[in-house]
Automatic annotation (TrEMBL):
Entry-linked InterPro entries: YicC-like_C, YicC-like_N, YicC/YloC-like
Assigned protein family: Belongs to the YicC/YloC family.
Domain Endoribonuclease YicC-like N-terminal: 3-159
Gene source species: Mesorhizobium mediterraneum
Keyword Protein biosynthesis annotated: no
Listed name of the protein: YicC family protein
Cofactor(s) needed by this chain: a divalent metal cation
Key words, A-Z: Endonuclease, Hydrolase, Nuclease
Length: 296
């Protein structure tokens, strides 16, 4: 299955019985499928159906859908002017201007007065309304298909980036595993050197006891478990990417696990080289998690 980014934009236009229909839809990152709508006055009835259509198609993202509907000239209600009333008002305004110096009346001012201009409501049958609603929802499906393609295009690019990050995490894990500081002979020499330093500082210390304590600390500092878990997480990440679909949340959890193991590796490290690897690993994990935030 394809991966989807949560960001995208699409536009679709259609025409129905002389009425133009245009949808613009866009999405950005979000924890769930949240939909914000801008519908023309009189078409608010479509809001539940639009929300259901978007949320049925997408599982995550903040969506904004804007509908524009343009009625044909023959379908628009024609304004009706009460010319007799308008004439009376114009004569009254002229007398007020001549007798009292009032400002001259303007056309828009006169037309805005109650009773001068009337726009009758258009009547629409139930059949015509249902047909228009169906055309609008069909255009919405087209726009959402375009949005899905845009999100999948970005998802393909993200898959490549995330796969590269997982490869880098694996390479760093193998470097830490093969670091010379983890060789048994090197560990023994380090323990012996620590014991010698302590014995030189105080002759009253028990050498055998110091060897036991040093060996215990060395065991606690071993990063074998962290390396094994990192390898397991790398394998899980590759399986998720290969499977595709809505895996954003799963990869985000995996990123947290990567981060936990890299932190532990740094804290347990007793060699500068391993610490450097751990810090580099943390940087790659941060990049991985940042990209994961964009996935559905």
């Amino acid at each position: 299955m394809n991966l989807q980014s949560m960001t995208g934009f699409a536009r679709a236009v259609a025409e129905h019985d002389g009425t133009s229909i245009a949808w613009e839809v866009k999405s950005v990152n979000g924890k769930s499928a949240e939909v914000r709508l801008r519908l023309p006055q009189g078409l608010e009835r479509l809001e539940p159906a639009v929300r259901q259509t978007v949320q049925k198609r997408f599982s995550r993202g903040n969506f904004q859908a804007t509908l524009t509907v343009g009625r044909a000239a023959g379908q628009q209600a024609q304004p009706v002017v009460n010319e007799a009333f308008l004439r009376d008002l114009a004569e009254l305004a002229k007398r007020l201007q001549e007798q009292f110096g009032a400002a001259p009346a303007t056309a828009d001012g006169l037309l805005s007065l109650r009773g001068v201009l009337d726009i009758p409501e258009t009547t629409e049958t139930e059949e015509a309304r249902a047909a228009l609603d169906s055309a609008i929802l069909s255009a919405l499906e087209v726009s959402l298909g375009g949005l899905e393609q845009a999100r999948q295009g970005e998802g393909a690019a993200l898959r490549s980036l995330l796969s590269g990050h997982i490869d880098a995490i694996e390479a760093l894990t193998l470097r830490a595993e093969a670091d010379p500081s983890r060789e048994p002979a090197v560990i023994r020499e380090r323990i012996a050197e620590q014991v010698r330093l302590l014995m030189d500082a105080s002759a009253n210390l028990d050498a055998s006891r110091l060897h036991m304590e040093a060996a215990f600390l060395a065991t606690k500092a071993d990063i074998r478990e962290e390396i094994d878990r990192l390898k397991t997480h790398v394998a899980s990440g590759r399986v998720l990417l290969a499977g595709g679909g809505a895996i954003g949340r799963k990869l985000d959890f995996l990123a947290q696990e990567f981060n936990r193991e890299s932190n532990t590796l740094c804290s347990k490290s007793n060699a500068a080289t391993v610490t450097a690897i751990g810090l580099e690993l943390k940087a790659v994990v941060d990049q991985f998690r940042e990209q994961v935030q964009n996935l559905e």
